Amino acid sequence: MEYRFSSRIAGLKSSAVRDILKLTQGKEMISFAGGLPAEELFPLDAVKQAADRIFQAGPRALQYGLTEGYLPLREQLCGRMADKGMRVAPDEMILTTGSQQAIDLIITVLTEPGDTILVERPTYLASLQVFALHGLKVIAAESDEFGMIPESAAELIREHKPKLMYAVPTFGNPTGRVWSLERRIKMLELCKAGGMLIIEDDPYGAIKFNANETFPTLFSLNGEAQNGCVIYTSTFSKIVAPALRTGWAIGDSRIIRMMAKAKQAADLHSSTIDQQILHQLLKGFDLEGHIAVISMEYGKRMSEMDAALRRAGGGQLRWVKPQGGMFLWMELPDGLDAETLLRCAVQKGVAFVPGSSFYGDQPQRNTARLNFTYNEASRMEQGVARLMEAIGEFTVRS
Ligand SMILES: Cc1ncc(COP(=O)(O)O)c(C=O)c1O
């Protein structure tokens, strides 16, 4: 039988790193590729105890639940959001299967194929996949260490009249950058003037290496959820564990209701077991303390990666030390294509994600994203040594 796949899926690019890792299965590999949290820091016992508590309450724990998500967890999350200056009611929130599903649902309810979306250059790979699947035209504004450049965005908005903007303003993926307050305000103004809705994706905002720094979200700067131009999404994946597959979105209740309708069609609801575990966890566990511990450890690992790169002769590479999040974004020597480098690096037992994966078009090919949260110091050091050896082969040859 000949399967006639939809043009949307047939045209979707698969991730370069997945393809390469498939070829190298079985090899001892140090991976800086995935956005993986450190497993040894997962709150395993607290999650186990939370799960025990929900099962002790009887068979009800196994029943179908609401599409919008488990209400007691939504109520707790409303409290957490209020602490960050985002005041919402439970009917202005929906729980999703990771924030990835929130992005997909927002795009489902607010766009038609052919609509245009404004993003940063570069931006989160799996959001680009969602936009491609929905047939959106992606336009990308330039960005620098202060975030999206308003002049570049303004020109694109004038020319293409996008319907939406998607952004990760705090510790972005892949760059780890934080938008300055000035840029946040400017981009809000530009989007409002252009009648655009903003999808603010914030999986990493809590993971900051200087606990005293605060970064107001676009949502909080904009004010109310009702009639607001920002729909905000975040997740438990990076601050508790990704396997619990629980994210949330907040925004105007009309958008949330539409998302719930689309979610019914997609999966009825996300796992209520996971949501109940998180509810129990938030009742008896010091999540803020846990976030402080992981942030401190990730800050240490980032410094170790930074130091290992310097020691290994990283003078020919350029990167800015991230102040939070999970990724270090690097520029390789001019003319060195990161996809070519990856093939060589994988032979030496180290993987990373070539930067080209994070561009809608015209990728800057000499860029790479390195995750610093997953590996402990000795593996980090070894991985960096392997990477530098691979880079050395190209710089010697050229
Ligand atoms: C920017 C960004 N958004 C969304 C997600 C999706 O996370 P999850 O679906 O696990 O909540 C990720 C995951 O790495 C991410 O980096």
Q: Beta fraction of the residues?
A: 5-15%
How many beta strands in the DSSP annotation?
14
Helix coverage percent of residues? 40-55%
SS-based class: alpha/beta
Give a list of the ligands.
Answer: pyridoxal-5'-phosphate
CATH architecture descriptor of the largest domain: 3-Layer(aba) Sandwich
Question: What is the straight-line distance between the termini?
Answer: 49 Å
Order of helices and strands: HHEHHEHEHEEHEHEHEEHHHEEHEEEH
Shape designation: globular
Trace the largest sheet across and list its strands: 2-9-8-7-6-3-4-5
Write down the CATH class of the largest domain: Alpha Beta
Look at the structure and name the CATH superfamily of the largest domain. Type I PLP-dependent aspartate aminotransferase-like (Major domain)
- What is the oligomeric state here? single chain
Low-confidence stretches: none
